[in-house]
Amino acid sequence: MAQRWTNDLTWADVTPKELWLNRRQIIAGAGGLGAMALARPAQAQQEPLQPNTLEEIQGYNNFYEFGYDKADPARYAGEMATQPWTVKVDGLVDNPGDYALDDLLSGIETEERIYRLRCVEGWSMVIPWNGVELADVLAKVGVQPAARFVAFETVVQPEVMPGVQAGVLDFPYVEGLRLDEAMHPLAILATGLYGEPLANQNGAPIRLVVPWKYGFKSIKSIVRISLVEEQPPATWNLTNATEYGFYSNVNPEVDHPRWSQATERRIGGGLFSSRQPTLMFNGYEEVASLYEGMDLTENF
Ligand SMILES: Nc1nc2c(c(=O)[nH]1)N[C@H]1C(S)=C(S)[C@@H](COP(=O)(O)O)O[C@H]1N2
Ligand SMILES: [Mo]
Prior knowledge:
The protein is 19% helix and 22% strand. It has 300 residues and is α+β, with helices and mostly antiparallel strands. It has one domain (11-290): Oxidoreductase, molybdopterin-binding domain (Sulfite Oxidase, Chain A, domain 2, Alpha-Beta Complex), CATH 3.90.420. The strands form 2 sheets. Strands 3, 4, 7, 8, 9, 11 and 12 form a 7-stranded mixed beta sheet that branches. Strands 2-1-10-5-6 form a 5-stranded mixed beta sheet. Strand 11 (263-266) and strand 12 form a beta hairpin. The chain is globular, with a radius of gyration of 19 Å. It starts with 16 loop residues before the first helix and ends in a 23-residue tail after the last strand.
């Protein structure tokens, strides 16, 4: 399953990795608009395309288990224990069990996927993930015909999680996908980014990435995957169902009750920082057929 997808950005589309890893230093050194313009290829609908820096991706996070400030995860998540890591797979599967992470992923090819991440709050990043297709993991555990949804659950380690201690949400954080969404080749389980293992604040050692949905669907630090018949609970939907739907597909036409979703602020834009138009399905239009016949305003 190594296909490339129309909207899967590649390193060939963007400036070499080394440049962006050190973007600030290079920009500081080059000191000219000319050099920056060269480093920023044009794109039809949305720009810039280049991945965010590691510093940005690891420094501006939502991981409410560690608090709600964007800097809290980087401050506190280092204390989370991620080894050994066991993922419980249960429900309507042929091969349920408590899988050591390596066993769950063994034999499945790790790929790089450069995806846009659009948070429901109105900001976005571009992140070069490393991971496996969720469909390959589901094939390995053997999904039974009665299964219609996949449910996910995040680890809870209260002693090192200030947000859990403070009860900022009901934990464990839970999320879910319809089975056909989960089987779509764009949906991945990420284990790294920029070729390095995930930092804890990004959801180490394994997290979901569903690039056409608002970021909160991409649940971090997964310890349980369940195949179920009924639509499973999802944390933000449980917290406020009028503001956060189960589907939560990125949709510039359906505003959040308290703000517009028509545009987004790309993190780290620096001198060129400007609001970008938000794209339907975050630009991943190949998923549209999953929602044929559905009213996406009602099923937001
Ligand atoms: N367990 C858990 N997963 C989570 C969250 C969270 O608070 N807890 N926040 C979500 C939100 S709102 C976003 S935007 C993304 C952010 O991922 P990143 O910090 O790796 O960019 O993670 C999602 N996954
Ligand atoms: Mo988010």
